[in-house]
Amino acid sequence: xxxxxxxxxxxxxxxxxxxxxxxxxxxxxxxxxxxxxxxxxxxxxxxxxxxxxxxxxxxxxxxxxxxxxxxxxxxxxxxxxxxxxxxxxxxxxxxxxxxxxxxxxxxxxxxxxxxxxxxxxxxxxxxxxxxxxxxxxxxxxxxxxxxxxxxxx
Length: 153
Fold this sequence. Notes:
Protein name: Lin-7 homolog B (C. elegans)
Radius of gyration: 19 Å
Strand content: 15-25%
Subcellular location: Cell junction; Cell membrane
Membrane topology: Peripheral membrane protein
Number of helices: 5
Number of strands: 6
Family: Belongs to the lin-7 family.
Largest sheet: 2 strands, parallel
């Protein structure tokens, strides 16, 4: 996988664009700084680590999309609570108001990929994108990660 080489190539192309004068230099310089930042390098490293370790069925595009989502979830999980907690959501006809990703099919923990605006989870406020599910109604799920809610309904 060549994410590092891809980023280097983009920086080279931005430099070439800057010299050509086709685009405003301040915007190109800002983009170059972002791509060369420690934060971007950290994201790339997490992405590459996940790409190498997650067992995801499907072609390269499916794998890249799943790894990108897992990378976002990993960074979202690193912000906020690091302790397991119980989040109780009332079961309603409208559902619980969140989407998940991961699980046995992707050989990864189960994470909250989206909290639906206005849904039960959003109104209750206890779940956040990137949270990992440890158990649902007392059934233990695979455990990894930092933000670890338990969901009961």
